[in-house]
Target: Calcineurin-like phosphoesterase domain-containing protein
Amino acid sequence: MHPKTANVVKSMNPEFVITMGDNQYDDARLQDFTAYYDKTWGSFKSKTRPVPGNHETYDPAGSLAGYKSYFGSIAYPNGKSYYSYDHGNWHFVALDSNAFDQSAQINWLKADLAANTKRCVAAYWHHPLFSSGEHGNDPVSRPVWQALYDKRADLVLNGHDHHYERFGPQNPSAQADPNGIVEILGGMGGAPPYNIENVQPNSQKRLSGTFGVVKLSLGESTFSWQLIGVDGAVKDTSPTYTCH
Model:
């Protein structure tokens, strides 16, 4: 399925590409990236802004070894597995949720958000705080959500669970909040799908067994998206949100 979702990305010809971890199964070794990922999603590697998932930590050569060797400075622009960048009126934060228990990354995130001058803020990493899928909610992400919520971030994108889901604006305690953060769970890039288990509060749409790619539309002060299936059909269309 990897080649089919890569073809969807190619047809979009996006300005940049975000991945939410588990870029290469099963152990994310460099030879696996070279043999498989590079022949599909690797065709737009130069404009990909990745983050690692848990599978990138399984490399026998060392945690994130193959991931770091393959992506190089694209994934480590400042020598760390987390980074940020701007695109138009948007500030993007790419995080490593394998290391959310380390204070250095949280402190860096808070400083990065404090220095941001863009109106719209999006962050992405692997393990979701909120998910109706088999893995479910992962509390490791709560401090990050809190830091983002405190700075009025707009959008979070996650993976890990192998389904598609979107959540309406909410706070880190799962309470609906017009000043809260919108979440996209986009885990349908190629690995076998997971079932929907326990529908979470504020979940507005869930699809299991649908492979595809999320196409973001980013305005100066608004955002929306569509889920494009591997057959080219639109599987879901979000509301249009205004940045805080």
